[in-house]
Amino acid sequence: MRLANLLLICGLLTAPVCSQVTADLVITNANIRTMDTQRPSARSLAVVGERIVAIGSDADTKGLIGPNTKVIDAKGRLVVPGFNDAHVHFMETGYQLASVDLRDAKTPQEFVERIRAFAAKLPKGRWITGGQWDHENWTPNNLPTAALIDAATPDNPVFINRLDGHMSLANSLAMRLAGIDKTVKDVAGGEIVRDASGNPTGIFKDAAASYIDRVIPAATFEQKLEAAQAASDHAASMGVTSVQDMSPNGTEIGAYQELLRRGTLKTRIYNCSPLGDYKRWTATGARHAFGDPMLRIGCLKGYADGSLGSTTAWFFQPYLDAPNSTGLAMADVTTTMIKDIENADKAGLQVRIHAIGDRANATILDHFQAVERTNGPADRRFTIEHAQHVRMDDLKRFAGQKVIASMQPYHVIDDGRWAWKRLDGPRLKGTYAFRTILDTGGVLAFGSDSPVAPMDPIMGVYAAVTRRTLDEKNPGGWIPEQKVSVLETVRAYTWGSAYAEFQEKDKGTLVPGMFADLVVLSDDIFAIDPVKIRDVKVQMTVVNGKVVYERK
Fold first, then answer.
1. What average pLDDT does range 282-288 have in this prediction?
2. Domain with 116 in it: what CATH number?
3. CA 485 to CA 117: how far, in whole Å?
């Protein structure tokens, strides 16, 4: 029987009629939260091929069970739609899984020893990248330098990222290979940190990283395949069934296609390219969401500024701990960006812009508004990535302008440990303002920003609901008035993220006709103490009606 006819029968008629066919997969005895406002809960669902054909009670799906049906007894556990990470650097996540992990190094000494141990396993000349270090873990929180790590890495060039991706540390060998000395000038949108004599310390912020990036050997196709597979396997273990890939160069698509051809891709991918790529996509005639259900393209990503942790987020007023700086605007923000957005939008491509500081967010909202006036009404779904620090009056503009706020809850409990050093009280009120965005009618799309933060959406739910910082110094929540409920959070991780990629009619809710992407969790995050949510585990992940991860 054709799937469309089967969906019509099972969705609109009675269970006895539906029983004339058999399902490929049936999940029974489950606590299903569908994220569908019309039918929020159920006990069982049935799948034919890649899509859900029936959902209801165990009795409603019993007649669909045949001799070849895979039946999963959920044992009363919670089932939710597969999590959709609306902002992830997917290939970089894969690379980081194979690199040195510096995220939780608590001291400069531990930082150096981890690098030394990792370098000892590598052949001479092999670059060390990734890292994801965070100097805010240290007391005092001084930036690392090349001199700190040179003795540990005499034979390996190093260029390791701060976890926000907007500041990196090079060792002296890497700087020599790149021809960096005190005579090299800063570039627009970037900064080389220097000592009192003007010599580079090894820290390169934002656009200045290009000086080192240009001499790092490009990854081979096999290395890309390994990274992509590692990222997809990791996503499945986290209950992430879809990602919106914000990788910076847009050249990953070939690796994803090969995994799809091999049948080992476990994650639906919506791949973004740099904003300037609109010319290339326009020439091909591609539009947003072009591709197949597993691999799609059509979004373009630009950058308005840097990050709070690197003091390169762009603000109207100076930083408290850097009173001579308001951050860094990217070079094109006040020049060519608005025309690029206009041309990309005119071509039917989706535009998504990274903005952290309040001035960056206000400027991008202005750009979006101007482009809409020029190009006229359309279902364009402009998105601001991060929307981290926004003036209270500007928060209302997200709903008014139909701009999606693509935000990452984990950053709240991470940045909340130290953000108060950089920003005063009035500016902090608009920090990760989930509650205000929703209350004013806006759409939230939640993600992780992995590998900047862990991909784990369970920790994202914990962060959005409790806002308890990682140092446990805010047990009642940091900026607690911006908390959201578990239901609102899961909806932002499922329906909201699907909406952000024009896919809300295919995924994000568990109803007949939708893709069979779902997650079984160890505990009911809607019922337990919110503080215990962080301990919940993914028991099983299903994509396209197939089990792609099962916890041992």
1. 85
2. 3.10.310.70
3. 43
